[in-house]
């Protein structure tokens, strides 16, 4: 997370996310292929303008051997689109983001996060994911949707797929949806079922043209569906569909359809070993430079602070904020510049939670306090939402040198006390404490004689669900047996 910049909404040419845009079954196939548009000078200009903003919102671009490998694969699949025959016309970026995401924008800009890349198991899957996104651009879907889209003013970009629309359609209503939305592009540029269908078909078509096994689209979707279910299990959710996907079809619904469209007897290269070699060493999960979630604890070793979520809540670290979610409330932690004192800071945060056509949200009062030696203050506002009365709390801290951090918390009226332990837990940490925070890394290992799923899973850098994580990470089933010489992925410190 880039905590040293203030939050802002990205309106970047209608970013097209692989997960959030809402995949649809391939069964209802269109009889007419979409028209493919070449990269125009205007698209190149717009893409070049949006590119730096997207890098800032999604953790920045990785460099080095892994990034170079992903770029090569991305350009190889992108030229199959007909947008351009020159690989040099495409910019393919491996993003330093701990969420499963991929997208593309007009102008030849294609993106995939390291987390989604780590979930894949061969090069054809990587090409399929990127091909799906390029397909949206080739069919000019964002331009079509922009003609009717209305620009929304969103309350802070969370930079995390899991944080997007985190309140869904539950009792906290539309106010919560606005506060915890990922960005205006995800609300104003939803694609139609036919557009999603076209992108799926185009991605599979590109795989065939490039000589890849087109069935890879199906296998990567299956991995995504299993990852979704595992995340729900770890959160204790009764649903296998995470909250960010509650209004979009689950990837599981696409597996069979993608296989049908690809053809069950299809063949082509997968380049599994080359792929595993190419991604070995990727940071997995949170990058300590952006802060790390470990259970209910969040630690930022570089900026030297830590806090704990309430019992029963889970956290997701985004590029611009941390979201804290539970059945009795939702919250967001972020930072900003402190120029006029905490009272003005809190008032400005409340003001930022108000859409231009709505009554301005203001705190009923602002109270001063001290938290672990930090000067702090908080304000509360009771707001009428579509689902009833809710309490909105902004709790801010002066970290000195013009830097402040704050929580925005939302709970049903009278229920905000659940966040008090969290508000009181924020503290500075020592350099030694920060130095103890280590990144998790994706490591490719060769199975040896006697190795089993359980013995290798025991080497994973997790204390919970290690076996389940290992199986999903490697696309293996519960009854899988390993063969000496086989390569598998582990997550280690």
Automatic annotation (TrEMBL):
| PROSITE patterns found in the cross-reference section | LYSM
> Which Pfam families does the record cross-reference, listed alphabetically?
LysM, Peptidase_M48
GO MF terms held by the record: peptidase activity
The LysM domain extends over 443-490
Annotated keywords: Hydrolase, Metal-binding, Metalloprotease, Protease, Zinc
Q: Which InterPro entries match?
A: LysM, LysM_dom_sf, Mito/Outer_Membr_Metalloprot, Peptidase_M48
Q: Which cofactor does it need?
A: Zn(2+)
Gene3D superfamilies, A to Z: LysM domain, Metalloproteases ('zincins'), catalytic domain
**Could you state one GO biological process linked to this protein?**
proteolysis
CDD domains named in the record: LysM, M48C_Oma1-like
Q: Which PANTHER family match?
A: METALLOENDOPEPTIDASE OMA1, METALLOENDOPEPTIDASE OMA1, MITOCHONDRIAL
State the name under which the record lists this protein.
Zn-dependent protease
Taxon lineage: Bacteria, Pseudomonadati, Pseudomonadota, Alphaproteobacteria, Sphingomonadales
